[in-house]
């Protein structure tokens, strides 16, 4: 079974956008999560990411991230409550225990909840990124900057899902062993998985060799315009392409018509976040008593953030039937 | 002006190998011995031979992986399209040679199909425009433009094989090497791939060297056959002469149609179904007589080993839940030997895993009355220790080893066993503790056990299956190999899109169609006649 976080190619705006535009958009929401402690703003950021993931068709990734993020958040709340003794509102007195607080306070619970919420929002952002941004395009963008690092990233990005599939197969085989076969503990299984991963890595390395990865790339060739017949495949490049000499059309660089939308939304989010921060939208205090700012600036910023979640929305398709008046008939 | 007076420069052969001897590191015996071979541009050459005879090593030497990647000791000369392969590495040869490994899953490095195909061009430094054109062309040639936007881990085996082939062809190499490309494909996809290779060979002029065990599938498409024997070239010549050589020297390399003619005493031996039919027509045997007696299922008045009733199984491979099994009703009785067949993705493995309790059905019932031992597709997954004896405990473990005939290999390292022995050891591990005296578990299930096996090893496996059946186990084998199914099965269950579309005697099912029919059945087109022995008996009865 595929990981819910695995990239799934789709024709949605977020998937079509260039990696830089997608990172600008999702990154701006992640920055908000780190910049703000006000739970209202954090919840709005989370809602924006859930909405974005839903509209981008990454609902499985969002659900998995919510499940993992909320579990992590609960853990953080519990740990924070047990180790921090600040706060005025004492809920439980647990007595003296080494390393632990004597009391559990509502403020420590709230502070833990904010940290947990922030972690969950960041996980949501990474889940949507992972499911919607093509890693091959990211690696291609990085390759001219750091060739060796890109190779390592290629190997890792390929081997992680393969190792997961291998582990699932080995677990199945372990369950299928007869009762008189030696039991397979975690150590032999891990050893076998490691050996298998090394074999896989060797295979991938051999493939990269065969694809010419160790060659020093030649300098970019100058474009030579030649007359080539116009096949159907060319049509899809025509709209975004530019016309060269002799009527030859060249494919446009991998830029999407949605790029500007994501850059713009990312910029709006960042500007709103900075202005909101300066205007006091981040009013929140955990100790000594919990105070959450819900002023108009906070509400306005939250509204902007939630609306930013609509960015991956696919525009309705305009067809002849709905753009032209009906000409009679049935 | 005179034409034809200029000196013509002969192009370099696509592959020239001279006196090549090679041994892998830390091994005594060389894998290749004094191999000399030359492939002219535009040839489609079939590389035949038994398991471990050196076919894969020869292909790796031709693409530079041997010795540059694997190490070892090498002597001789290898030249690919005029490039010295021993002096240059695989990367330098990448523009001249494409290589497709047996398991395409080990050969994909990108996330999406388009990126995977584009990678070699990107490595070469081609501009984006040229890359887009080349990717589109090769996708059209291989009929996979609809896959370009897909993630590679959502593809079926056949689709992945085509993508790996596209990545090998996209640089327009002079030579393409393929290592058992049909081993994981169903008969339909296997046939499609072979004829696709022939078309590329004819239209693009690309030289193809194809290593295969299922010779009946590709012999008719080949210009020439090279047979390796213990690391050396045993035969090099046209397909028809190869069949004569195989008849005398190694019957395991005979095709079923050739064996049919050989047993019936008909000459010349046919290289394919069409050739066989023409020869029979020439001899006046246009329509052999219908056999009087046909192979029928032995009745098994035994208890059921596996019963499924209205079984529905749903799986999610990342693109939403999908019904993989849809209301399957099936009963396998103890002692029955059943082949479970169908296209890639028909639900064969899912059915076996559901019977073994690895997958929960969403609806319906599955009952395994007296236990099940399942051997999955990769036997190595069962082997986790460094000594055979450590894998199995006590007397029950030794009893399982005895059943599979490995009682003398207790102290061996599983990694030192041959492929067939490893498979039998994995089966012993699955059986261990499920044997009561002489009584085996009710059902022994094997999933695609013949991948990469030559016919001799398949015959051994068929014998083992017969042994298990005679001891009272129902044996259910999921396989794409119609010839193997004809050799061991008395009943065939054919799955299509998760539904049982045919269930009956093997002789009837394997002679009743085209893709899921043996080569003999396709030649004779007689109901119930599927093996060379049966076909030869019919031809002899008819007096030719």
Describe this protein's structure.
The complex is a heterodimer of chains A (330) and B (544). Chain A has 330 residues and is mainly α. Chain A contains twelve helices and six strands. Chain A has helices at residues 13-16, 19-35, 39-55, 59-83, 106-132, 135-142, 147-175, 186-210, 232-238, 259-278, 296-308, 320-323; strands at 90-93, 103-105, 242-243, 249-250, 284-285, 291-292. In chain A, helix 7 (147-175) packs across helix 8 (186-210). Chain B is an alpha/beta fold and 544 residues long. In chain B, helix 4 (113-124) packs parallel to helix 6. Classes of the chains: A mainly alpha (330), B alpha/beta (544). At the A-B interface, helix 6, helix 7 and helix 8 of A face helix 3, helix 4, helix 5, strand 15 and helix 14 of B.
Helix/strand layout:
The complex is a heterodimer of chains A (330) and B (544).
Chain A: H1 13-16, H2 19-35, H3 39-55, H4 59-83, E1 90-93, E2 103-105, H5 106-132, H6 135-142, H7 147-175, H8 186-210, H9 232-238, E3 242-243, E4 249-250, H10 259-278, E5 284-285, E6 291-292, H11 296-308, H12 320-323
Antiparallel strand pairs in A: 1-2, 3-4, 5-6
Helix pairs in contact in A: 2-3, 2-5, 2-10, 3-5, 3-11, 4-5, 6-7, 7-8, 10-11
Chain B: E1 15-23, E2 32-39, E3 44-48, H1 55-63, H2 65-68, E4 73-80, E5 83-84, H3 90-93, E6 97-100, H4 113-124, H5 128-141, H6 157-169, E7 175-179, H7 187-204, E8 207-211, H8 215-218, E9 224-229, E10 232-237, H9 239-249, H10 256-264, H11 273-282, E11 304-316, E12 321-333, E13 337-342, H12 348-355, E14 363-368, E15 372-375, H13 388-391, H14 394-403, H15 419-431, E16 443-447, H16 455-470, E17 474-478, H17 482-488, E18 491-496, E19 499-505, H18 506-509, H19 519-524, H20 532-541
Helix pairs in contact in B: 4-5, 4-6, 10-20, 14-15
- Order the strands across the largest sheet of chain A as they lie in space: 1-2
Question: Hey, roughly how much beta strand do the residues of chain A contain?
Answer: under 5%
Radius of gyration of chain A: 26 Å
By secondary-structure content and strand pairing, the structural class of chain A works out as mainly alpha
Mean pLDDT of chain B: 88
């Amino acid at each position: 079974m595929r990981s819910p976080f695995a990239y799934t190619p789709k024709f949605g705006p977020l998937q079509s956008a260039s990696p830089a535009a997608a990172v600008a958009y999702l990154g701006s929401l992640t920055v908000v999560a780190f910049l703000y402690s006000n739970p209202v703003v954090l919840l709005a950021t989370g809602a924006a990411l859930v909405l974005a993931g839903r509209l981008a068709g990454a609902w499985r990734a969002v659900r998995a991230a919510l499940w993992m993020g909320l579990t992590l958040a609960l853990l953080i709340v519990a740990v924070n409550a047990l180790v921090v003794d600040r706060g005025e509102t004492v809920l439980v007195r647990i007595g003296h225990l080494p390393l632990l607080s004597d009391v559990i306070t509502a403020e420590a619970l709230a502070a833990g909840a904010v940290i947990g919420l922030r972690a969950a929002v960041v996980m949501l952002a990474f889940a949507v990124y992972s499911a919607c941004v093509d890693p091959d395009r990211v690696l291609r963008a990085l390759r001219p900057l750091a060739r060796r690092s890109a190779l390592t990233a290629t190997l890792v990005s390929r081997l992680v899902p393969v190792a997961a599939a291998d582990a699932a197969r080995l677990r199945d085989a372990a369950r299928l062993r007869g009762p008189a076969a030696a039991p397979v503990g975690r150590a032999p299984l891990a050893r076998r998985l490691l050996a298998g991963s090394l074999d896989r890595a060797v295979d991938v390395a051999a493939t990269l060799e065969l694809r010419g990865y160790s060659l020093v790339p030649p300098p970019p060739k100058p474009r030579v315009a030649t007359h080539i017949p116009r096949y159907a495949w060319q049509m899809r490049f025509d709209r975004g392409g530019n016309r060269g000499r002799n009527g030859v059309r060249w494919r446009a660089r991998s830029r999407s018509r949605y790029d500007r939308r994501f850059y713009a939304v990312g910029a709006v989010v960042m500007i709103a976040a900075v202005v909101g921060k300066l205007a006091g939208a981040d009013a929140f205090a955990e100790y000594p008593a919990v105070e959450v700012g819900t002023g108009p600036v906070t509400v306005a910023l939250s509204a902007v953030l939630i609306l930013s979640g609509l960015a991956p929305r696919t525009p309705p398709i305009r067809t002849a039937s709905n753009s032209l008046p009906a000409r009679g008939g049935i | 002006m005179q034409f034809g007076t200029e000196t013509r420069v002969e192009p370099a052969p696509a592959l020239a190998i001279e006196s090549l001897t090679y041994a892998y590191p830390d091994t005594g015996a060389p894998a290749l011995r004094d191999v000399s071979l030359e492939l002219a541009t535009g040839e489609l050459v079939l590389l035949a031979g038994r398991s471990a005879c050196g076919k894969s090593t020869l292909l790796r030497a031709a693409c530079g992986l041997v010795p540059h990647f694997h190490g070892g000791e090498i002597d001789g000369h290898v030249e690919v399209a005029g490039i010295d392969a021993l002096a240059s590495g695989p990367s330098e040869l990448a523009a001249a040679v494409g290589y497709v490994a047996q398991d395409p899953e080990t050969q994909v490095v990108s996330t999406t199909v388009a990126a995977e195909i584009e990678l070699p061009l990107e490595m070469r430094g081609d501009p984006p425009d040229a890359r887009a054109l080349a990717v589109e062309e090769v996708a059209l040639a291989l009929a996979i433009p609809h896959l370009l936007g897909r993630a590679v881990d959502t593809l079926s085996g056949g689709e992945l094989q085509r993508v790996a082939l596209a990545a090998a062809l996209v640089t327009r190499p002079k030579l393409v090497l393929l290592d058992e490309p049909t081993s994981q494909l169903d008969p339909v996809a296997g046939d499609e791939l072979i004829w696709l290779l022939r078309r590329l060979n004819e239209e693009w002029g690309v030289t193809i060297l194809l290593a295969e065990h299922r010779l009946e599938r590709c012999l008719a498409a080949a210009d020439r056959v090279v047979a390796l024997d213990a690391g050396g070239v045993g035969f090099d010549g046209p397909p028809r002469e190869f069949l004569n050589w195989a008849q005398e020297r190694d019957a395991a390399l005979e095709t079923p149609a050739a064996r049919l003619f050989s047993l019936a005493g008909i000459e010349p031996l046919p290289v394919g179904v069409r050739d066989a039919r023409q020869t029979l027509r020439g001899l006046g045997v246009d329509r052999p007589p219908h056999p009087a007696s046909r192979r029928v299922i032995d009745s098994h008045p035994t208890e059921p080993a596996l019963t499924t009733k209205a079984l529905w199984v749903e799986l999610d491979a990342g693109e939403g839940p999908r019904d993989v099994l849809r209301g399957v009703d099936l009963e396998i009785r103890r002692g029955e030997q059943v082949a479970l067949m169908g296209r890639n993705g028909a639900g064969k493995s899912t059915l076996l895993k559901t019977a073994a309790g690895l997958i929960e059905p969403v609806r319906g019932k599955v009952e395994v009355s007296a236990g099940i031992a399942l051997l999955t597709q990769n036997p190595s997954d069962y082997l986790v220790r460094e000594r055979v004896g450590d894998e199995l405990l006590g007397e029950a473990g030794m009893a399982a080893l005895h059943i599979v005939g490995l009682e003398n290999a207790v102290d061996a390292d599983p990694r030192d066993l041959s492929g067939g022995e490893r498979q039998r050891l994995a089966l012993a591990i699955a059986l261990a503790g499920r044997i009561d005296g002489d009584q085996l578990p009710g059902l022994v299930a094997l999933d695609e056990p013949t991948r990469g096996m030559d016919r001799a090893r398949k015959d051994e496996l068929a014998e083992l299956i017969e042994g298990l059946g005679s001891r009272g186990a129902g044996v259910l084998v999921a396989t794409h190999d119609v010839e193997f199914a004809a050799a061991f099965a008395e009943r065939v269950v054919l799955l299509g899109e998760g539904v049982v579309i045919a269930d009956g005697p093997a002789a009837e099912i394997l002679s009743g169609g085209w893709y899921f029919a043996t080569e003999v059945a396709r030649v004779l087109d007689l109901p119930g006649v599927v093996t060379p022995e049966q076909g030869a008996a019919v031809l002899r009865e008819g007096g030719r």
